[in-house]
Amino acid sequence: MSVKGSTALVRLAGNPACEILGAMVMQEGSERRFYEQVVGQPYDREFGERQSSKRRGAQFERNAYAGDTRLPRETLSPLIDVAPDDIRVRNLIDEYPGTKDDARIARLNITRKILQTSIGGGTFPHLIIQPQLLIPTSPGPRPYFFFAPDLLIWSARHGCYLPGDLKSFIVRENEVSKGDLARVRLQLGAQVLALRHEYHRLGLMALPPAQGVLMFSKPNSLSPHAPRIEDLGGAVEAVHIGIDAFLRHRQRIDALRAGAAPHTVVADLDPNFQDACLASCVMAQWCRDRVAGRAADLGDVASEVLEDLPLDHLIG
Amino acid sequence: MNKPSTDLDQLRAVEAELERRLFEVRQQISHSGRKTEQVSGGRRRPLREVMLDLLAEAQVPLNSLLIASILRPLQGLSVASTRFGTLSNDEAKSFGSSRARPVYLCHCLNHDDGQAVKRFWARSDWPISRRILGPMSGRVLFLQGAGWTIELAREASLGELPVANGETLNFVAADQARDAGLKVKRGEFPYDDWLEGLRDLLGRYSVEDEAVRAAAAAELSNQLSERELLFGARQPVVASLPGTKAGWGEQL
Fold this sequence. Notes:
By secondary structure, chain A is an alpha/beta fold. Chain A folds into two domains: about 5-50 and about 260-315, no CATH class; about 50-240, no CATH class. Chain A is built from twelve helices and eight strands. In chain A, the strands form two sheets. A six-stranded mixed beta sheet of chain A has the order 1-2-5-6-7-8. In chain A, strand 3 and strand 4 form a beta hairpin. In chain A, helix 1 (about 5-15) packs across helix 7 (about 180-200) and helix 2 (about 20-25) packs across helix 8. Chain A starts with a helix and ends with a helix. By secondary structure, chain B is α+β, with helices and mostly antiparallel strands. In chain B, about 60% of the residues lie in helices and about 5% in strands. In chain B, about 30% of the residues are buried. At the A-B interface, helix 4, strand 1, helix 5, helix 6 and strand 3 of A face strand 3 and helix 5 of B.
């Protein structure tokens, strides 16, 4: 998994006590490079999203954006309260394609201008494809996190945009597995927070509600299912905690490293090994070795019940 | 002291005239010999020329994604998505050079601020209003591009247009029809029905869209330089990124 943008905050929200994760987010370069620098060997295990999942996701997005976003226009029409044919769409990836920072900044500029227009009462799009948002964490290293929701959707009821994400998970009746849903809810929560930041800088008193729109794939095709509006109060709060954790870790790591790269001080940092780390973090085994012989090595439940008890005490 | 510059001006005028003539000759060659030359795998022409020809035939701005998907079945060319970025940069650079070209590849412009919409390509010899994107122009251009694609597939199926891979072109046309919300059945290619359907859809938007474009064209031609009218207004400088307002920390 990535340690940039919304994924970084989602991971910090899931494990706010892990200082190793804080160092990974601060460090330039990839997660695997961080592992190599700490362990001194290349990371040789399975890493990253499966190619088949990536292809499926890319195809789902292509289908959704085709025909001037025809399918989402049809499914989102009741939320926007405008007929599908009359929905205005602005695709920012058409205007400024690319994933480098200059493209992100250009799209951020356009997004900000559209938000300003929507407040000022001008003609604005009902759907913004691939907008760009950010959450500031300045001053310090990593002074902001970029966020790119798949969509911003105009909500007639709230009089503001809501973030929306396209997910190509195979679902039936719009029901998703708990693990997958928890992750995308945190992702949407981070996007809500970033959208609130943009509205706040425009001086809007009533910030957008903690709600987001999820669009899953139909089980028998790669076309979008009816949208699902999620209440994200808990997720937004979790992302708050993740940001606070990052600020805290950054302060500690900065004090320890005295200008050196963050990976140089990992031995002095506190890991917080959890079962979920094994599926999402390259440092999981390294952290597990640090708790070998203690209750945390037996899993989350044992760690919760027995705290930091050495296993020798249990056996003896 | 003026004489050398007058000579230089004359030479530049002759150069521009020759460039224009060369372009016309190339276009004639392209129209008469393009199909056989490319389908038979002859010398590959520069992407710039290929795109200028495509746009001249389509007579509407085209999206990079559509161009890439059309070029493979039409001319057997595969174009990497990054190639369009370098093409755009090269074209903007060549505009600044002393050798004027008779026609440039350029981008469509947003109706409200004149910023370039980089994935939509146009020709500099078109009227500005045809290169403007209004609030509904994305849909209009998609429908026009789809119509052009289906028309190509129809001509190819009738043997009027030799193409590298007619079958794939049919599928690209069917994809366009499906994306427009028209009925598509496996193995059937009712070009005339699709074209009729697209005309109906276009009719809903075209009048209002043309009015917005014409008004924006009049306004932007007074505001922007010749270069900006081709490659887009300058991006505003972001004075402070994140651009946070006081009091945001309390929200957290």
